[in-house]
Amino acid sequence: MAIDPPKITLRPFDVTDVDDFMVYGADPRVSQCTRWETFASEEEALTFIKEECIPHPWCRSLCIDNRSIGFISVRPGSDEARYKADIGYAMSAKHWGQGLGTTAVKMAVSSALKEFPGLLRLQAFVALENKASQRVLEKAGFIQEGLLRKYLFLKDKLWDMYIYSYLPTEPNTEVNCFAMPS
């Protein structure tokens, strides 16, 4: 008998997410490839939710049964970069390897293209060592464009980063599972 995969939703963060956020925010396996440090207290996490997640132009809590298991954000560019946006995400280690990240990225891309109709490019930067995140993006239809050597200094380390892109106008129907907004 097949088990149905969990129903994933994306919604704006709320301060009541702090306990769920701590499950992944306090896990160094999750935070190692994020721009934020591992959270040591609920107070730190609550401040982050209030000051970063809630006011962010497009940051969503990745939820199962309305419980936050991760986050995904899309940050549109401005001025001459207004046609592109960066996408980033992290998820509780308990949920890794279940296809939830790929589903969430697909949902976020679809939603971002509707909410930001001028977007012609979504891009993601992924650490060379983060093979799982590379697979998530590839399964979601992103194309690896290249390796940016010694690109990002983060957490006392200089990281090589792959850059991935998703162009909704590309005619590759096998990976392009999102329609352009009308």
Can you summarize this structure?
The chain is α+β, with helices and mostly antiparallel strands and 182 residues long. The protein has helices at residues 18-25, 28-31, 42-53, 100-115, 131-139; strands at 8-12, 59-64, 67-76, 84-91, 121-127, 143-154, 157-166.
Structure explained in plain terms:
By secondary structure, this protein is α+β, with helices and mostly antiparallel strands. It is built from 5 helices and 7 strands, in the order E-H-H-H-E-E-E-H-E-H-E-E. The protein has helices spanning 18-25, 28-31, 42-53, 100-115, 131-139; strands at residues 8-12, 59-64, 67-76, 84-91, 121-127, 143-154, 157-166. The protein has a 7-stranded mixed sheet with strand order 1-2-3-4-5-7-6, sandwiched between helices. Helix 1 (18-25) packs across helix 3. It is globular and about 45 Å long. Residues 173-182 have low confidence and may be disordered.
